[in-house]
Amino acid sequence: MIRTDWTREEAQALHDMPLPELMHRAQAIHRKHFDPTAIETASLLSIKTGGCPEDCGYCSQSAHYKTGVKATRLMGVDEVLAAAQRAKEAGAQRFCMGAAWRSPKDRDMDKLCDMVRGVSELGLETCMTLGMLTPEQVTRFKEAGLDFYNHNIDTAPNYYREIATTRTMEDRLDTVELVRQGGISVCCGGILGMGEAEEDRISMLVTLATLPEHPGSVPINVWNEIDGVPVQDRATPIEPFALVRMIALARIMMPASVVRLSAGRTEMSDELQALCFLAGANSIFVGDQLLTTKNPSTGRDAELLNRLGLRIAPAAPHPDGERRIGLGALTSREALSGP
Ligand code: SAM
Ligand code: DTB
Ligand code: SF4
């Protein structure tokens, strides 16, 4: 059963269980909804970098801070499609295009819709993350065939004003709801390690798990350190088992959502990533680059997944998951073409 009425107390109680109990529950739920050997892959492209008017205190792309990121103009459609083709060849299933905007300008919509159509035609799932949307923009993206829209709540409602002042959590939730009502699948998660307390982390997951409908994708990012932003002064590295507990909690409360172990993997050991997969994470970003920061190399990811017996496959739920494990599946080494 998919519940959207989780309480903070229930979430805290699950979170605080002895790790073997928590992992057992998360794994049982994971297997009920997904093939636990399948990992979904998405690739990111920054189609418009830097110079952003928002003041998100964690971000390299805000114009409010000196981070050394150079602002660029919106890329051309052909350039984006060439990058999408390369991502596909390197093993990506979804192509996520990100722009450092508060919201897209109407004059850019034709170009953005052409990007969506072109990437779809290459046989990739499409995702965009461009900031706040109007209902009309949602309709246009739906018509263009956009599969997912990413818009993160980023942190706990209580902690939000500590990390951004040019927008509110309500603004974020409004766009998430518009996207859902417009029939585009929602990708919505947040960031850990920005100095928030444990109860804030749990509260962020409860906020996601009590949305009218759970996001189809839930990216869990560990803050990638950026020199020159305010979060640098308050960031506290997340303890490895605290991350595993968060993934397990996300898996239990949002059983049918794909949980993506997103930014921050370059700093994680293979063993920690493996524990996250065991706790229910079933998606990663692939490719050497996220938006402005690094991701593990394709070759390194292929090797890790292969050592764990995991394979690149759509994380779509299927009823006979356990019987299909390993039968005729592409191994991760075959699927991810790395050096
Ligand atoms: N401007 C749009 C927006 O804010 O929705 C789209 C791009 S924005 C970079 C996408 C998401 O990336 C943010 O909401 C945040 O959750 C995540 N992010 C940004 N900087 C990060 C960092 N240094 N480490 C981890 N995640 C980060
Ligand atoms: C998400 O949750 N993480 C991605 C994607 N959605 C857009 C972005 C991570 C950005 C990491 C910092 C950077 O590369 O600038
Ligand atoms: Fe701009 Fe998005 Fe970065 Fe905030 S997270 S500064 S909105 S690019």
Question: Could you explain the architecture of this structure?
Answer:
This protein is an alpha/beta fold and 339 residues long. It has one domain: Alpha-Beta Barrel (TIM Barrel). Helices cover 40% and strands 14% of the residues. Strands 1, 2, 3, 4, 5, 6, 7, 8, 9 and 10 form a ten-stranded parallel β-sheet that branches. Helix 3 links the parallel strand 1 (38-48) and strand 2. Residues 319-331 have low confidence and may be disordered. The protein binds S-adenosylmethionine, 6-(5-methyl-2-OXO-imidazolidin-4-yl)-hexanoic acid (DTB) and iron/sulfur cluster. Iron/sulfur cluster (SF4) binds at residues 52, 54, 56, 59, 61-62, 100, 131.
Write the layout of secondary structure elements.
Elements: H1 8-15, H2 19-33, E1 38-48, H3 77-89, E2 94-99, H4 109-121, E3 125-129, H5 135-144, E4 148-150, H6 160-163, H7 169-181, E5 185-187, E6 190-192, H8 198-209, E7 217-222, H9 231-234, H10 240-253, E8 258-261, H11 270-278, E9 283-285, H12 298-308, E10 311-312, H13 321-324, H14 332-335
The chain binds S-adenosylmethionine (SAM), 6-(5-methyl-2-OXO-imidazolidin-4-yl)-hexanoic acid (DTB) and iron/sulfur cluster.
